[in-house]
Please model this.
Amino acid sequence: MRSLLTAAAVAVALGPAAATADAIADSIRAALEAYEAGDLQYALEELVTAQGLITALKTEALAAYLPAAPEGWTREVNSDYGQSLALFGGGSGVEARYDGGATSFTLSIVADSPLLASFAPVFANPAMMAAMGSVTRVGRHRVLDQGGQLVAVVGNRVLIQASGAEAATMLPFIAAMDLDGLAAFDP
Model:
């Protein structure tokens, strides 16, 4: 409760970005104090709180990589998407739905998911990718077209998926992303 009140006070005083950073530090300090006092359960709760706040910061940073909607299109970011990753071992993620009237699709970015580690080697091997579908280059990055779904892994730790429309419609959105920046993603 104490860390929640501290975070709320900081949020009012310093604004959202500073409040989140201070709330993280407050939770970590509270966890350390609880640990030193022998209250392991409270220490664990505070560490989980800090982890959630850090994940939220990473998710916010990932959202900046989503391309803007071009003229005639709208973009709606699903702010709850990243929370579902906890069911699959964690990671950070963001998803947006792009609507162009007659056509719409979703584009998602997932970073540092343990699930990605299991199939990232496939995407590092051009021959294996080619066996799974057609491969298109976007800069130095390969994008796999699996007939209605585009998939790319950049930096061996960031997964990009687009689905719901023709590849020719979705590919320019992926090309508009800073894929090199995502490959080096470290908020």
Remarks:
- Strands lie at 74-78, 92-99, 104-111, 134-138, 141-145, 149-154, 158-163.
